[in-house]
Task: inverse folding
């Protein structure tokens, strides 16, 4: 069990579709323990494996004192919607009003490969949808209208953590400027 660093916006792993879990083994159980420890330490309402750099379809949640996990989730969403503040551990300290389904039926597996069905509404439904989006390479800011997304992106660009994460571009010291001739 370990608390792992959370990957921040701009990390390519957050934009890739995660792979299905095929082995329900000790490694998966360790991953779920690490996800849970990291989520509780943060603290967050949920955490998906890509957020700690692991590209598999697993997430954890912590809503109203209920801690759980789901492997290879599929969702059935209600037609009724909710709009509420949403944030993300990969976009620290940023929140925006986001539209989600009011309730969800999530089907998947536990760490032992046993089928699981989770019925959630309101905050639990929001968390399950948010974390499942992460498994598809989707961030909550992708679900915002254009105006709200622009406002959030201004905040991202101004954030100290974002400036610290920008890759530094190095110039080649060679006469060719790094180009093959």
Result:
């Amino acid at each position: 069990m370990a608390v792992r660093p959370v990957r921040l916006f701009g990390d390519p792993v957050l934009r890739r579709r995660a792979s299905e879990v095929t082995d329900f083994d000790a490694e998966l159980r360790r991953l779920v323990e690490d996800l849970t420890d990291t989520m509780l330490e943060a603290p967050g309402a949920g955490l998906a494996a890509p957020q700690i750099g692991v590209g598999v379809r697993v997430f954890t949640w912590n809503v109203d004192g209920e801690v759980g996990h789901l492997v290879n989730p599929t969702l059935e969403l209600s037609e009724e919607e909710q709009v509420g503040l949403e944030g993300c551990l990969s976009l620290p300290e940023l929140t925006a009003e986001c539209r989600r389904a009011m309730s969800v039926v999530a089907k998947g597996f536990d760490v032992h490969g046993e089928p699981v069905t989770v019925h959630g509404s309101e905050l639990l439904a929001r968390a399950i949808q948010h974390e499942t989006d992460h498994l598809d390479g989707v961030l909550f800011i992708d679900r915002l209208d254009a105006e709200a997304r622009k406002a959030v992106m201004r905040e991202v660009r101004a954030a100290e953590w974002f400036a610290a994460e920008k890759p530094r571009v190095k110039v080649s010291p060679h006469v060719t400027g790094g180009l093959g001739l």
User: Anything to note?
Assistant: The chain has four helices and seven strands. The mean pLDDT is 91. Strands lie at 46-48, 58-63, 66-77, 81-88, 91-101, 103-109, 115-121.
